[in-house]
Amino acid sequence: MIPIYTRYLMTTGYGVLEIMDSTVTVIALFWGLRISSAVVRFYYEYDEEKEKQEVISTALIAIFITAIFLVIISQCISDKVSYLIFDTPYYEKYFKIAFVTLALSLICGVPESSLIAGKRSMFYTCINVFVFVSYLSLNIFFVVFAKKGILGILYSSLITKSAYTIFLCFWFLVNHKVSFSFNKLKNMIKYGLPLLPASIGMFILNYSDRFILQKLTTSAEVGIYALGYKLAFMLAFLVIEPVKRILDPQMFDISRESNGRDTMSKMFTYLVLILVFCGLGLASFAKPAINIMATPAFYPAVKAIPFILLGYILMGASTFFQSALMITKRTHYIGLSVILAAITNPIFNLLLIPKYGAMGAAYSTAISFLSMLVIVYYFSQKSYHIDCEWSRILKIVTCGLFLFFLDQIIAAEKTFVSIIYKLFLLGSFPILLYFLNFFTGEEMHSIRVTASRWRRRFRILGDRSENILKEL
């Protein structure tokens, strides 16, 4: 939707939408009490189906009651929220719609968790794809054809979320017996509340810059920065999160092996290699992507992307040491490192944004995630020491920085030529590492074996294609 949003909302409208989304996110952190996240955990506490259903129905009843209170309170204070954030009550109606949508999201979160816990992945995927298509269709209708702007996006979200919540609740009532347990609710709240500090810390790290930008600059500046942030966030969404899901269970198994620490040292090197390579790719193609997707008013967003990407590379590295802390069950250090890093973020934002605007927010993001990496590395090394391959990591960082600066210095004017040039630079990354003697003998052997296997597969595929052509 970015090409549509940037053309029909402009920088100011896009900034307002980003701030509203961030506001709803922070309220959701507190209001939901992380009950939905506790459903999956306590679902597996019990063997009897009756007990499992009671966990889900208890959570649903509790969330439904809190959602009603959220709707009532929000309708009374939406004008004050609008004035607090935007210094005008103009967006009162916008916030009223957004808060009702949030209440519906909290309610449908419990049936969603029950589908995940019950391993109903196909059903879950199908209904979410349908909702996704419906939301996009309504968005296009309200924004492009009805010319409703931000209100159109809010209407789309409200309509689809209402239908989705009604459907899920109806499915739940048909397939589950409703009951309530104060004891189970107490246990779920006890489980969910300690997760709040780390969640709040991550929210501050990821979103506080938008609010400070809004207060110290303009909504247009927020909109430009938000677009750059979204493109850089792809590193977290497409790389860091999937890798972390694979990494965590692997590290628990590897830690039990005699040479587990050596294996994890190599794993960290490979993680840095993946992060730097993907970060370099996103930084290189950011300008062509924004030129294609957005209007000229959004082009300044390109400048902030490399620094935000640097921040997320550092965050990705810190998740490795967080996993190491989980091995020793000293998870309180994870929350402490996030909170300490979160404290630095608003401080640097307040110092840098008045002078540098959106770039100041980007600098602050990189500094804050660097502080988180340093803190979590310190705690993890005290708990579970890993000798990192710093010489190899230095070679990765050196190659990445060299190619990045080369890309910045030599810029092709035509988009097609620019893309070819950037692909050439990315392809040079492993070649440079090879000449720096980065790869070990064992790794080179694995690369040769893998290359030989793929050549064999392509040869077989080519022979089959040739035979088919002859038969035709």
How would you describe this structure to a colleague?
The chain starts with a helix and ends with a helix. The chain has a domain of 149 residues. The longest helix has 38 residues. The chain is built from 17 helices and no strands. It is mostly helical and 472 residues long. It is globular and about 65 Å long.
List its traits.
17 helices, 472 residues, globular, mainly alpha
Task: Describe the SSE topology.
Layout: H1 2-8, H2 10-31, H3 35-43, H4 49-86, H5 92-117, H6 121-145, H7 150-175, H8 182-192, H9 196-216, H10 219-254, H11 260-293, H12 301-327, H13 332-356, H14 358-383, H15 390-409, H16 415-435, H17 441-471
Helix pairs in contact: 1-2, 2-5, 2-9, 2-10, 3-4, 3-5, 3-8, 4-5, 4-8, 5-7, 6-7, 9-10, 9-13, 9-14, 10-11, 10-12, 10-14, 11-12, 11-15, 11-16, 12-14, 13-14, 15-16
Brief synopsis:
This protein is mainly alpha-helical. It has helices at residues 2-8, 10-31, 35-43, 49-86, 92-117, 121-145, 150-175, 182-192, 196-216, 219-254, 260-293, 301-327, 332-356, 358-383, 390-409, 415-435, 441-471. The longest helix is centred in the first third of the chain and has 38 residues, at 49-86.
Shape: globular
Q: Number of helical runs?
A: 17
| Strands, total number | 0
The helix content is over 70%
Largest sheet: none
Distance between the termini: 44 Å
Give the uncertain stretches in residue-range form. Answer: none
Radius of gyration over C-alpha positions, nearest whole angstrom: 25 Å
Order of helices and strands: HHHHHHHHHHHHHHHHH
Mean pLDDT: 89
Beta-strand share of residues = under 5%
Helix/strand/pairing category: mainly alpha
